[in-house]
Design goal:
Radius of gyration: 16 Å
Organism: Pontibacter populi
Structural class: alpha+beta
CATH class: Alpha Beta
Number of helices: 2
Strand order of the largest sheet: 1-5-6-7-4
Largest sheet: 5 strands, antiparallel
Oligomer: single chain
InterPro entries: FlK, FlK-like_dom, HotDog_dom_sf
Pfam family, one: FlK
Number of strands: 7
Number of domains: 1
Distance between the termini: 34 Å
Helix content: 10-25%
Protein name: Fluoroacetyl-CoA-specific thioesterase-like domain-containing protein
Shape: globular
CATH superfamily: Hotdog Thioesterase
CATH architecture: Roll
Amino acid sequence: MTNPFQPGDIKVYKKLVTAADFARFEDGLVHAVCSTFSLAQAAEWAGRLFVLDMKEKDEEGVGTFLTINHKSPAFEGENVTIVATLKAVNDHEVICSYKARVGDRLIADGETGQKILKKEKLAKVLAPKTA
């Protein structure tokens, strides 16, 4: 792992809200706005942008935690901008805070954690256990 970043550095990810982002469960559509799940996935991707620049070819990132405070709706056709701010790198764990906005309106905020591991180690950890 190579870390060219300092706490306070940022990465930006932009996401267009589509119908695929709406909140749906087995019983159908909940509401026609961007779901918390979809925002969480975008927030994790924004933090992963740091991981992509840090990991070596024989390494991969894996999520360790995610918090999301969903504050306001994002509607179909709106562009959500997620700004991830590097908080710390602790023993190969990349910790970011983020804010998701549509224009000046805060949609969500929270934190993400992703750990960079050797692909070989990750494959062993994620391998199905046999009885």
